[in-house]
Amino acid sequence: MRLIKMTGGLGNQMFIYALYLRMRQRFPNTRIDLSDIRHYHVHNGYELTRVFDIQPRTFCIPQWMKKTLEFLFFRTILERHEKGSLRHYDGQVYWPLVYYKGFYQRLDYLCGIEDEVRQAFCFNEQKISTETRNMLRRIETDDTAVSLHVRRGDYQQAKYYASVGCVCNLTYYQKAITAMSSRLSNAHYYIFSDDSLWVRENLQPEGAVYVNWNRGDNSWQDMMLMSRCRHHIISNSTFSWWGAWLGTHGGKIVICPDHWYANDGGNVPLYPDNWIKISL
Questions:
Q1: Are the beta carbons of 189 and 177 closer than 8 angstroms?
Q2: What is the DSSP letter of 279?
Q3: Which of its termini does the chain have fewer beta carbons within 10 Å around, N or C?
């Protein structure tokens, strides 16, 4: 049996589920472990079933029991030790019980299963609010709609700021808007953020629309609206990465920071080759 630990917010959960889809093709007895995320309250808990109506094969037991079983019987594979290698995900591991921990934020993990991933992450429009539905109609009739995502919130906390929070600063968004406007005439910016006051005070491109009503359990509706825009300016956040990647409009322009982490040396294995990187 192969278990994959589920953790993080919606964007991270989607990457973990994508790995599950990849692994179960060769190893049908792969399951997602929900034992820990039941106690995870930083974001909105486990969201995949509620948002996308997907039902993966899962494993869930009391947390103390899971930790004991992992320690005694499982071989643990830590993604950060694999350095991008797929050998322990696609190949045999000569141990009957294997436990996988990581975030799997690499295009490599999606290679060959892109269509299956897109099919899994289809948003159910029956669940959206009236405000979101009205905005969706506006975006879908706007040929120059650009999603612009700003993540601040937890990124502004001292423990995260130096590594991720400092990356997409005001200068980055100013450069990104300039780069987009030089490529797309009459761009209309739909701005999504967990800090609506900051974006209104600091980002005021002509004709900006501020989408600020989706909070808590409804936050996923922002990702849906972002994915329906024609073009995208993302932050170093998996939430906006998915909003851009799930977009299916031909000729879409995606602008992103050339760093994901402050100290990653500009090596970001998440970006397709045609995404435009803004130097920080």
A1: yes
A2: P
A3: N
The residue among 154, 150, 170 whose CA lies nearest residue 243 is 150
DSSP symbol at 156? G
Length of the chain: 280
**What is the chain's mean pLDDT, rounded?**
94
The half-sphere exposure of 194 on its side-chain side, counting CA atoms within 13 A, is 17
Q: Nearest 5 degrees, angle CA 54-CA 235-CA 152?
A: 95
Model confidence over 127-161: pLDDT tens digits?
999 999 999 999 999 999 999 999 998 899 898 89
DSSP-H helix ranges across the chain: 10-26, 48-52, 63-73, 79-82, 87-90, 114-120, 130-140, 158-160, 170-183, 196-202, 220-228, 238-245
Residues pairing with 232 in the sheet = 147, 254
Structure tokens at 70: 């992992």
Residue 202 CB contacts under 8 Å (≥ 6 apart), including other chains: 170, 173
- Summarised one tens digit per residue, pLDDT across range 251-277 is 999 999 999 999 887 788 999 999 999
Residue 145's closest CA among 21, 244, 238?
244
Going by the DSSP 8-state scheme, the letter that residue 234 receives in this structure is -
DSSP state of 165: I
Q: Is pLDDT at 41 greater than 80 in this prediction?
A: no
**pTM to 2 decimal places:** 0.95
**β-bridge pairing 276-278 and 254-257:** parallel
Q: Quick one: 216 exposed, middle or buried, by C-beta within 10 A (0-12, 13-18, 19+)?
A: exposed
DSSP classification of residue 207: T
